[in-house]
Amino acid sequence: MKWDFRLTKAEWLIAPIGSIISAVFTIIAMVNHPSYSPYVNYLSDLGVKGVSSWFFNSGVIIAGICGILFCIMLYRRFRNNNITFLGLSFVALVGVGVVNETHEPFHATISGIFFGLFGLSLLLLRNLWKVDKNLFYYSILTAAIAISFIVLNDIPFLEHLAAASMVVWSIMAGLKLAANKI
User: At what angle do helices 50-78 and 156-178 cross, to 10 degrees?
Assistant: First the structure.
């Protein structure tokens, strides 16, 4: 039996919803973390203690779970095995929220896997986004920023830039899929 899998517009919004929740929770964590600075601190510093840790870790876990669901839908739509790398990056994102910075070197490894697989997957999947030039070029830019953070690991602001570009990418991809532009 062959399944006819059609998603409604609302179902594609899982990626933007997860990204927005994560971004809002991260901002709340930043506001509640004394002396936090994106120029000095890595994002994971928000997940160590206090109220900020609850917001940051919860937001990251929610974004990861929504990303996994998004990848399942992407695979069912496009049947591209490279979507597995994007899905694994979201599994790693859940791991970032579960294994905080006090558990080194595990946390740094999981974080590196997230940024690396996310960037790699956007490069591998670039042909899926060619229908929409804005998403295509933004995918390449986001991949370059994510991979740059791994290479130049000692620049906290670059991590913030990579995370923000990933949030924007997730929102763009989800909205364009919901509008049937891809």
Answer: 40
Please name the residue that has the structure tokens 């620049």.
Answer: 155
pLDDT, tens only, 63-85: 999 999 999 999 988 888 889 99
If you ran DSSP here, which 8-state letter would residue 5 be given? -
Q: Give me the helix-helix angle, 14-31 and 156-178, nearest 10°.
A: 150
Tokens of 139: 């995918």
DSSP 39: T
d(CA 39, CA 17): 27
User: Cβ(126)–Cβ(4) under 8 Å?
Assistant: no
**pLDDT, tens only, 97-130:** 999 888 889 989 999 999 999 999 999 988 877 7
- Give residue 19's identity as a one-letter amino acid code: S
